[in-house]
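Handout, tutorial session.
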Amino acid sequence: MDSLFSIKDKHYLLSGATGALGGSIATYLVGQGAKVILLGRSEDKLANKQKELDEIQAGRTFTYVVDLRDEVALSSLKQKISKEFEKLDGIVNLAGGNIPGATLQEGQTIYDVKIEDTKEVVDLNLFGTVTPTIVLSELMAKQGFGSIINISSMAARQSISRVLGYSMAKAGVDAFTKWMAQELASKFNDRLRVNAIAPGFFVGNQNRAILINEDGTYTKRGEKILANTPMGRFGDTSELNGMVHYLLSDASSFVTGSIFEVDGGFSSFSGV
């Protein structure tokens, strides 16, 4: 049973691993004895995260500065990874986010949205997953095994007000997850798996002000979300770790093309 769930000494690549969710997952994986390859655009943030993880267990964290939408840079990185590591057991795509111009404020309508900012958000959240997956998964296709986890959202399956670009991008991530799952399993090896996790509402640096007031009370948006979450609370970032572990491990060997909600019941509740 232990070997079924074991991720000890396996190599996992995490993009966007310096954010709230990515940082928590990286910390968890190293704590479980895995080795992590962290990708990001900020050398300082990567260095700080590596220092933090080295305090848990030294020599298990490796970092590379790269733009996840740059196909040429990723192709070069793929060659480095191929030479420096004997295998790549999994990829967790965590890059994403939003920008003000693509988010409607209170009182605004769709006609106030900035198209260029919306395109940028779609590019970041969709192609920030598509590009590294297509480029780097070739390593796993050649070795004949590996698990890929994409990050979806509640906004991909129902209308979450104000975040048009983010919603379109995450719906695209869902479609890409299913498409890539059938492509890898049917044309390469049934040990190649692609799934997605759709987190509910977790409080991080990007959305804290949207959900929680400075005095600790909930904003109107935060109250609406909690009113539609049967568990009645926001998620803690650590509560994604179990699903990540399951999907990376051999325990999920017959699972591919699926999107798993980790949302406190939000997606199952009708509001009445």
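The second record follows below. Compare its token runs with those of the first.
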Amino acid sequence: MTPQEYVEEVLRLVESIPEGKVMSYGAVADALAERSGRNSSRLIGAIMARHGGGVPWHRVVNSAGRLPPGHEQEARARLLSEGVPFRGDHVDMRLM
């Protein structure tokens, strides 16, 4: 899989995350690891930062449920409107 194909697969997977659900950067990487030969949550974060504006970017959080850096307020509002459970300022990943 070429780097551009990988970006497209990441965006396709993020687009498929249902409303009211989230995935961690690591879960996205794991889901594509076998087909792509890549497995880096940091790479997923970089792809989302550069190319994620057209997909539901707010549904991708870190493994502790922290929201995308610099976009916490907007992500929280969007996720709350979708019924995503929070524990303080983080998504409650135990319930996801």
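Points raised in discussion: Strands lie at 23-24, 60-61, 86-87, 90-91.
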